[in-house]
Amino acid sequence: MYRFTSAVLLSCLVACGSSSSSRAFDPAPAGPGAESDAGPGAPAGDFSPDGGASATAVIGHLRGTVRAPNGTIPIAGALLYLSKDKPAPTSTKVYCDQCVHLAAGQLHALSDATGAYDLPVTTAGKQYLVIQKGGFRAVREITVKAGDTTLNDPTTQLPSKTQPDVGDEVPRMTVVHGQYDDIESSLMKLGIDPSAIDVVESALIGVAAKEFLTDATRVNDRHIVFLPCGDYTQPAPNTDLSTDPAIQANLKAFVEAGGRLYVTDWHYDFIARTFPGFIDFAGASQTACSGCGHTDYDAAASVTDPALASWMTAQSLGSFTLQRNYTGIDGVNATATTDAAGAPKTVTPKVWVSGSKANGPAKPATVSFEQGCGRVLFSTYHTEPSTLALTPQERALLGVLLEVNVCTASETGVVVN
Question: Where are the beta strands (DSSP E) in 17-92?
């Protein structure tokens, strides 16, 4: 295998947490005076969707586009809403994301495949505009006026790093650096500030990784842990870290508590041994890295998730090739596990992207599954080839990464009470 130092796998970005430290809150309904704030030109006959006696007249709309931290990539499915109160900060440690709880009739919007949104407003004056996708959240104090307003892109751009004083939050991420997949480079192409990415790396492959992964306190201090492709069985005297009981226990507890674990390619053993049953890896046995490919291959991509497919198509990326896969997935299985409350649940991994090798049958290439309050994401491929721009497969993994960071209780990240 090769080590690709500039273009890498752009994937995993989302988080979870406990109800006491979640972002959930109930914004207060519009107060007295909402009607008088409407003023001339307020739209008529536009009401909140719950209807009935609590329906409130809409006085205008906020429109614009949500983009990634780099300011160029559109973000689909971002949640936008207004609140008179500033949301409490997210927990800095792993937590179970309980979604955003909005009161019945509280208006909100979700950005479409192009990142565009249309947020109805019912009250004029100073308010907090909240924009979030998974663990990314920007809170902006704005003055809302009657009528329609188009907000400039920086206002609704996802943040590049956590800055509590300006209302910016980014998931706490650690990349346990492998030998072949510089995920941190892809994250920076997305626009994530280098200071927001903790990279665990040492000259002797595996030493720093073991120190981090066996330390439950350090692992639980993160929202997302990346285990990009590598081979911790080489060179000697390293051992196969995926068999370490302490590491298995820490990763399982991290995910069940709400963490997101992202794994690629040769590190599939961390999933096969810690979360057995969910994925059948091609050629895998009890021998370490037995399913690791000895030659790389390309595969024609097919995006199987409709929302992800729409997002890719909106970027003129409806057809592309998954370049340089080094492992394979034979299939996914319905597996007994637990939900966020610890109750029994059967989960079948979701297939986001499949790949067809040499005109053969389509096989899963990017999959994810829930365990407890968290999620595990696996991809057979890197974000290749090395380029300064985001490749199609990097963008696909970015889309998946953002989606699996949405709270497990909702596909949109919002619960209307």
Answer: 60-65, 79-83
- Residue 49 is classified by DSSP as T
Closest Cα partner for 189 from 160, 222, 166?
Answer: 160
Side-chain half-sphere CA neighbours of 68 within 13 A: 22
Residue 208 is given by DSSP the state: H
CATH of 171-416, one of 3.40.50, 3.30.519, 3.30.420, 3.10.420: 3.40.50
Residue 42, φ and ψ in degrees, nearest 5: -65, 140
Residue type at position 30 = A
Q: Give the per-residue pLDDT at 11.
A: 32
19-168 belongs to which CATH class? mainly beta
Q: Which two tokens stand for residue 271?
A: 């999933």
> In 136-278, at which residue ranges do the beta strands (DSSP E only) sit?
136-144, 147-150, 168-169, 173-176, 197-200, 224-227, 260-264
Sorted by where each begins, the domain ranges of the chain are: 19-168, 171-416
Residue 313 parent element (H or E): helix 306-314
pTM: 0.84
Listing DSSP states for 337-404 in one string gives EE-TTS-EEEE--EEEEEEESTT--EEEEEEEEEETTEEEEEESB-S-S--SSPPHHHHHHHHHHHHH
Token couple for 268: 């599939």
Beta strands in 161-228 (DSSP E): 168-169, 173-176, 197-200, 224-227
Common-topology check for domains 19-168 and 171-416? no
Cβ-count burial of 53 within 10 angstroms (0-12 exposed, 13-18 middle, 19+ buried)? Answer: exposed
pLDDT at 28: 32
Mean pLDDT of the region 165-186: 89
pLDDT for position 383: 65
CA dihedral 142, 148, 153, 157 (to 10 degrees): 60
Question: What pLDDT, on a 0 to 100 scale, did the predictor assign at position 12?
Answer: 34
Tens of pLDDT along 40-54? 333 333 434 433 333
Distant-in-sequence, close-in-space partners of 363: CB < 8 Å, separation ≥ 6: 282, 299, 328, 329, 330, 331, 354, 355, 356, 357
Strands in 12-156 per DSSP E: 60-65, 79-83, 100-102, 108-110, 116-121, 125-133, 136-144, 147-150
Whole-number Å distance between alpha carbons of 396 and 389: 14
**pLDDT band, very low/low/confident/very high, at 224 (cuts 50, 70, 90):** very high
